[in-house]
Specification:
Blueprint: H1 2-26, H2 30-33, H3 36-61, H4 65-94, E1 109-114, E2 119-125, E3 131-132, E4 138-148, E5 157-167, E6 170-183, E7 189-201, E8 207-220, E9 232-242, E10 248-260, E11 268-275, E12 281-287, E13 293-298, E14 301-306
Antiparallel strand pairs: 1-2, 2-4, 3-4, 4-5, 5-6, 6-7, 7-8, 8-9, 9-10, 10-11, 11-12, 12-13, 13-14
Helix pairs in contact: 1-3
Length: about 300
């Protein structure tokens, strides 16, 4: 956007400069050169400038690659940290019990240590890069989980950190804290989920940072503890981040986001991303289909983007 404004400014400067030079050098000959040729030339210049200016104004309202980059980086970081929640959810509830139903990645090693009567430590070790999960993502490194209390009891706390942990060659860092808040007025168990110092390093070495405070309402699957792939949640809350190009942004959930253990993408809901010093971008995640598509609206312009 800034580059577009710069090009518009340069065009305006050149146009004005031409007018000044034309006036100073040819002022005395003005009566002799105001013929059809010069009038045609001047008209062409004015018309060209009008077209450039109009193009600049239209481009400012378009959804640029810079805008979609913010959306995609937010989606990438959100997905990787949401996956960590789902993964630890699966392991914590089962605690090494044999998985039933659809396949789970079998290449990881899970160990549990009881620290005291109320605290346990679980380590999920994916090894050195040959572990493919249920969603066909390749993982390596470790997820470290500290548990306090009983999983389904109010006040249960889960703290998640990472040790040389990669997903598809993206390094994941940060601390995630999940606290069971008990059932809400609908009878659904809710959790507060806080992410601190979240950081994604891409295979190219670019860095995306993220912090968030969200509430997850468990809307399906609570009654089937031995089968995790029917788990569905409604998510509300907000996040802040810096994308790989250094652009700061905030993200607020407008309509609750629906997520499922079976799908790596957000199923439905809307959110608003506000990049620093720019207009807000509305994201509509769809009608419940499991895909990477979203409708993005900026200044009354809408386009479909792939969240990757």
């Amino acid at each position: 956007m800034l580059q577009k404004k710069a090009r518009c400014s340069r065009a305006f400067f050149i146009f004005v400069l031409y007018g000044i030079v034309f006036d100073k050098e040819d002022g005395e000959k003005m009566n002799h050169i105001m013929n059809n040729m010069h009038l045609t030339l001047l008209s062409a210049i004015v018309l060209s400038f009008a077209i450039i200016l109009g193009s600049c104004e239209n481009n400012e309202n378009e959804i640029s690659s810079e805008d979609t980059s913010v959306i995609q980086d937010d989606a990438l970081s959100a997905e990787l940290f949401e996956d960590a929640f789902t993964e630890t959810d699966l392991v914590v509830e089962e605690q090494l019990k044999e998985f039933k139903g659809e396949k789970e990645d079998s290449c990881k090693t899970v160990t549990m240590e009881k620290l005291d009567s109320d605290t346990r430590k679980i380590i999920i070790d994916y090894g050195e890069g040959n572990c493919e999960d249920f969603h066909e993502r390749v993982k390596e490194g470790k997820i470290l989980i500290t548990l306090s209390g009983k999983y389904r009891n109010k006040g249960f706390t889960r703290t998640v950190t990472f040790e040389d942990y990669f997903v598809n060659d993206h390094k994941v860092e940060g601390t995630k804290t999940i606290i069971n808040q008990g059932p809400n007025d609908k009878g659904n168990v809710t959790y507060t989920v806080t992410l601190e110092n979240g950081k994604i390093t891409t295979p190219e070495g670019d860095v995306i940072t993220r912090e968030s405070e969200k509430t997850r309402e468990w809307i399906q699957g609570y009654e089937t503890p031995l089968y995790k792939w029917d788990n569905k949640y409604k998510v509300t809350g907000k996040a802040t981040g810096i994308n790989r190009n250094g652009l700061r942004y905030t993200r607020s959930i407008n309509d609750p986001l629906h997520v499922s253990a079976k799908c790596r993408f957000i199923l439905s809901g809307t959110a608003e991303i506000k990049p620093a010093d720019k207009s807000s971008i509305l994201i509509d995640y769809g009608d419940g289909s499991c895909d990477d598509k979203a409708q993005v609206t900026l200044n009354d312009k809408t386009k479909e983007v792939r969240l990757k």
